[in-house]
Amino acid sequence: MEHLTKRYGSHLAVDDISFEVEEGIVYGLLGPNGAGKSTTMNILTGYLSATSGTVSIDGHDILEEASAAKACVGYLPEQPPLYVDMTPREYLMFVAELKKVKRADRAAQVEQAMDRTGLAEMEHRLIKNLSKGYRQRVGLAAALLGSPKVIILDEPTVGLDPAQVIEIRSLIKELGKDHTVILSSHILSEVSTLCDKVLIIAKGKLVAQGTPEELAQRLTAGSSLNITALGEADAVMNAMLTVPGVSEVQITGQQNGETSATVQVPQGEDLRAAVSAALAAAGCPVLGLTTASMSLEDVFLQLTAQAGDEEAQEVLENQEEATLRPEDLDFVQNAVESGESGEKPWLENSEQPDEEELRQENASAQAEEEEADEK
Ligand SMILES: Nc1ncnc2c1ncn2[C@@H]1O[C@H](COP(=O)(O)OP(=O)(O)OP(=O)(O)O)[C@@H](O)[C@H]1O
């Protein structure tokens, strides 16, 4: 992709993105909602045209040699376009025909794709009766038909339950063995476990790329040391500030004569020995010392924050376990209090059903049940 730009009216969704994809590697496009991942993938697959810039797949320009370029790509959009009144096999045979797989090879290719995606036991069900996870598999199987070199997956695990997420992720890992895979995700842990290389996109710009480890290392402003030493905060802080290279010390706790602190360390330097020696010399023996390096999460936050993206914080927060927000706590508190006093303030504005209405509703429901039982 070279200098790819996409405008929707005056909105710049993709802003001069260039990158090259090596064969046989799993790439992750990582970015918060609205960063431009789907737009980028839609352009890559020839689904959308770019405002400017070029895409070339295995030497074929996506506009000038569209058929040849698209033949190299298997695409699973965020919402796979399935014909839900077909069975997986019927649908896949149809896709194989669209992809111009030779008639003699179609049945075998469909069989193989169903096999790889674990669809065999669902082959006679209508797609509309399949779970979201199985529908996703049908979409993946369709992407595999025609043996494309590159598989492009847009948010492949969105909307799946945890068991389905695990299955689809292991399937993607398998695909990565024989294909070049480009997937998009806003889930950091997914990208760092599945992908060999990560491209971080924020506000339509490519802000960083590298292996998850490289990103975590290369982009850190340095690591930090977490230290616990015996002594008062002032003494501990002053001792550490005497060490060349230490410019920032943050006291994080004080208890029973012990002080905990975090020290920022410049990139590439190891100050553990110097800091321990300085503390010992100041009469503050070190009780604990650990190095904390930046995780991919930190890097992501740092980069997207640089791009002025507040949604990045949301992405991280959404990955934490569900927690109660202050307004939820108020609601729970109200519910508990009013339960004690017998009031239901949260129902105050809702329409209260009339008692007679309720009685009639229940009676007719009971009559229907009895009738059903008799039948
Ligand atoms: N057809 C369209 N018309 C106008 N604006 C659009 C259109 N499609 C996307 N956008 C805008 O372009 C930006 C990038 O959208 P895109 O869907 O590529 O982001 P994304 O990173 O895939 O986000 P998500 O994870 O929510 O799918 C967003 O601000 C979006 O609102």
UniProtKB/TrEMBL annotation:
<feature type="domain" description="ABC transporter">
    <location>
        <begin position="1"/>
        <end position="228"/>
    </location>
</feature>
<protein>
    <submittedName>
        <fullName>ABC transporter ATP-binding protein</fullName>
    </submittedName>
</protein>
<dbReference type="GO" id="GO:0005524">
    <property type="term" value="F:ATP binding"/>
</dbReference>
<feature type="region of interest" description="Disordered">
    <location>
        <begin position="333"/>
        <end position="375"/>
    </location>
</feature>
<dbReference type="Pfam" id="PF00005">
    <property type="entry name" value="ABC_tran"/>
</dbReference>
<dbReference type="InterPro" id="IPR003439">
    <property type="entry name" value="ABC_transporter-like_ATP-bd"/>
</dbReference>
<keyword id="KW-0547">Nucleotide-binding</keyword>
<comment type="similarity">
    <text>Belongs to the ABC transporter superfamily.</text>
</comment>
<dbReference type="InterPro" id="IPR027417">
    <property type="entry name" value="P-loop_NTPase"/>
</dbReference>
<keyword id="KW-0813">Transport</keyword>
<dbReference type="InterPro" id="IPR003593">
    <property type="entry name" value="AAA+_ATPase"/>
</dbReference>
<keyword id="KW-0067">ATP-binding</keyword>
